[in-house]
Amino acid sequence: MARGHQKFQSQQRNLKKQEELRKQKGSDQKAAAQKALTHKCTVCMVSD
């Protein structure tokens, strides 16, 4: 196992990696939500 300074560096690298993954997931979720968002106007769907 890593000790001291090496352990600290390893934790910092892992933290940065986790933050990058969260950012990527966040944007993917937003894109997926926009793609899945379908709004049908009840007025427009009524045939004359």
TrEMBL record:
InterPro entries in alphabetical order: SERF-like_N (IPR007513), ZNF706/At2g23090_sf (IPR026939)
Top-level taxon in the UniProt lineage: Eukaryota
Region (Disordered): 1-34
SUPFAM superfamilies referenced in this protein's UniProt entry, alphabetically: Expressed protein At2g23090/F21P24.15 (SSF118359)
Listed Basic and acidic residues bias regions: 16-28
Pfam families on file: SERF-like_N
Protein name stated in the entry: Zinc finger protein 706 (inferred by orthology to a human protein)
Organism placement in taxonomy: Eukaryota, Metazoa, Ecdysozoa, Nematoda, Chromadorea
